[in-house]
Specification:
Blueprint: H1 4-39, H2 51-69, H3 71-91, H4 111-121, H5 134-144, E1 150-156, H6 159-173, E2 179-184, E3 190-197, H7 199-205, H8 209-221, E4 223-230, E5 233-239, H9 249-253, E6 256-258, E7 264-266, H10 267-270, E8 271-278, E9 284-285, E10 288-297, H11 302-316, E11 324-329, H12 330-360, H13 363-370, H14 372-387, H15 393-426, H16 432-444, H17 447-465, H18 472-511
């Protein structure tokens, strides 16, 4: 459901994941049962006979016993980890999508270093450098009309006022931390040659106005006299004065115009020639004239820069009535993506909650599984912050994918906990100790499938973090929150979920509401 540039970038990922999940679901309910029938016959070894399971159970058993004994301490520690992640998350910057290519770079070279080196060597009087990359430059220009990452558009009705406002905005934005390549579009300042025909003088010399106009057109603009044909190609042949005879006002004044009696009169006698200034290009948008301030952002995330820059412009740039400012460039993509994600993320969480409710037939237990979502966020925030990534669309896509996996592992744990408790309930009324024993059994004796769920996801993601080829700069921000979040989510599911389960079932036991669930893995 993403749109624009971010949609084009992530639609293939979404389709691939959707089709893969659909295919795996079909295989799971058709091919897997048949293969199990043929391949899993005979005597099956006990879980304790598996050396891998025994190793992890040996590590996990004392941990789960400790957390079930010190439930409040465990909850406080998890809440503390979540509380630490909140300020880290708030300090993360924001941007749209990072696009870099690092092939054939010198060792230790960064994008900022390349730009700084080029900028120091390419300096020319009267020219301002604006550094970008060819592909993203064309994408920006086609999608937003701005050649740089950001642009400040000023709208109004007078070109001179727009010029002054753009230059003042340039001066306001330049000192800001992160501002680079700041240059205001000069909507005025173009030089033009105006040739006004003196009709009275032309009449005195007996020269027609049309003849003077023909001379000006031929001498300065060029007159097409024929066409050259070379195969399928056609080339116009034009004739006009040599540059030496038309490159300054004096030379133009010496150009001769013929009168009716054959006299040759210089243009300076029958015209008024002067140089005037005007708009080199008139841009309009939305029915108003527009000036533009180009800028890039370096060494800082785009979101915090725009927030500070907007506040500074609102405070220091006084706009006349009828004039207003908008931000364009990559900021447009970021705002659009943010608005769409603000809709998609809550919608996804609501859908997950509804599915969990139908699975457990209890809003309370569905909420217990949903607790894995914020705790999955903890590890993701830690790793994203440690790697120095900002909150781009790629990072949010990683978080969205993480939520689904985190809930999946939570569901697996809760089902096994219920299955272990149901065995106790079938043998008669349960005590508080039976609930503890069921929680231990469901958590420890079914540890391997939970670890396999997490391990499969991690094994597929870790190689992405080591990649450096094409697309790595987009895929790494997706993988980072998923890797960090999978680790913290696994810890939460293996530690916190049994604790919460024991608290809930102990409460149900006191109120006489503890009953058989019928859940099977």
């Amino acid at each position: 459901m993403l749109e624009g540039q971010e949609g084009k970038l992530f639609h293939p990922l979404a389709f691939t994941k959707t089709f893969s999940m659909t295919g795996s679901a079909v295989i799971a309910i058709t091919l897997v049962p048949v293969l199990m029938y043929y391949l899993m016959r005979g005597r099956m070894p006990r879980e304790s006979a598996n050396p891998v399971s025994s190793f992890f159970v040996g590590i996990y058993s004392p941990v789960i016993r400790w957390v079930l004994k010190w439930k409040k301490t465990t909850i406080v520690l998890n809440i503390f980890a979540l509380a630490v992640a909140v300020p880290l998350f708030m300090r993360l910057g924001s941007e749209i999508i990072i696009l870099k290519s690092k092939e054939h770079w010198r060792p230790g070279m960064t994008k900022e270093g390349i730009v700084a080196e080029l900028d120091s060597r390419l300096q020319q009087v009267g020219v301002r450098n604006g550094w970008t990359q060819p592909i993203i430059n064309r994408i920006n220009m086609l999608s937003t009309g701005v050649r740089t990452d950001l642009g400040v558009k000023i709208f109004g009705s007078d070109l001179n006022v727009l010029r002054d406002l753009a230059v003042r905005a340039e001066g306001i934005l330049k000192p800001l931390n992160g501002a680079a390549d700041v240059v205001a579009e000069r909507v005025t300042g173009g030089n033009y040659i105006d040739i006004d025909i003196d009709r009275e003088a032309a009449a005195r010399y007996g020269i027609k106005v049309g003849d003077i106009q023909d001379v000006i057109e031929t001498a300065l603009g060029g007159e097409m006299i024929s066409t050259s044909v070379e195969g399928r190609n056609r080339f116009p042949i034009r004739i006009r004065y040599l540059r030496d005879y038309r490159d300054n006002i004096t030379a133009i004044g010496h150009i001769l115009a013929g009168g009716m009696d054959g006299t040759q009169v210089p243009l300076s006698l029958v015209t008024r020639i002067r140089v005037s200034t005007g708009a080199p290009e008139i841009n309009s948008e939305g029915g108003l004239l527009r000036s533009l301030v180009y800028l890039n952002v370096r060494g800082r995330d785009m979101g915090s820069f725009v927030t500070e820059a907007k506040a500074r412009l609102e405070k220091e740039l006084k706009l006349p009535p009828g004039y207003y400012v908008t931000w364009s460039g990559q900021w447009e993509n970021q705002v659009r993506a943010k608005e769409r994600l603000q809709l998609l993320i809550p919608l996804g969480l609501v859908i997950i909650f509804i599915l969990l409710y139908f699975t457990f037939r209890s809003a309370l237990e569905a909420s217990m599984v949903m607790l894995s979502v914020p705790f999955a966020l903890v590890g993701g925030v830690y790793l994203v912050s440690a790697l120095g990534y900002n909150l781009s669309v790629a990072v949010w896509v990683g978080f969205i994918a993480l939520y689904g996996i985190a809930v999946e592992t939570g569901v697996v744990m809760v089902i096994y906990l219920h299955e272990a408790l149901d065995k106790k309930l079938l043998n008669g009324p349960c005590t508080r100790q039976d609930i503890y024993d069921a929680a231990y059994e469901g958590a420890v004796l079914r540890l391997r499938p939970k670890l396999m769920t997490v391990a499969v996801a991690l094994l597929g993601l870790v190689p992405i973090m080591r990649s450096s080829g094409t697309g790595a700069e987009v895929m790494k921000p997706i993988a980072a929150p998923m890797i960090g979040g999978m680790i913290s989510s696994a810890v939460h599911v293996l530690v916190m979920t049994p604790v919460i389960f024991v608290l809930m079932k102990t409460r149900d036991l006191k109120k006489g509401r503890l009953h058989y669930s019928g859940m099977k893995h």
